[in-house]
Amino acid sequence: MMSIDNRIAGTQTDPEETFNDFLTYAELLNTPQLAQLYTFILRDGSVEIETIKAELDIPHSTTYKYLGRLEEMGILTRYDDETPTTVTVEPIHLQLDTDHGVVTATPVLLDAIGRQRDTEDIRVFIDRQGIPKLVAALHYTLRIMDGDFTQRTAANKLGVHPVEGMTVFTPLQDVIEEAAEYDPYLDRAN
Asked: What are phi and psi for residue 86, nearest 5 degrees?
């Protein structure tokens, strides 16, 4: 089962559209620059396109390609009638019910994925362990912040060397603290 808040709620399930949503969200989860752009817009609310290009140092054509992709996903709104043109995005909530339990992707995860472009500790962790392990690290970081685990215990549960786990928990704590401002699903993400 997959649910995407505000996209398919209250409508009849269309398997083709649902799977297409899944594929486009997978692209968002697997493209760090797209995740970074999405999070930048979400964090700032209404953003001018020129500001996006300047702040994120993304080429003109790539910026418009990614904005178009987010628009196709149904999570970006473009305000062309304003000068200059601005855009906004909706917070995503992707939930998969799998044989191993429910997996949830919210803006905090996209922020963590996007930050690999600027935060070496996250980039190295993803390069070595992959996105699925990052999802688990984010889960354990929330548990650390809630006082359920120490960093060492969380690293052991994560199944990585304690130094590697503790190295990624610190930047992920920064991501989570900032996400409290823009991720309405953060409590559901843990």
From this structure: -120, 165
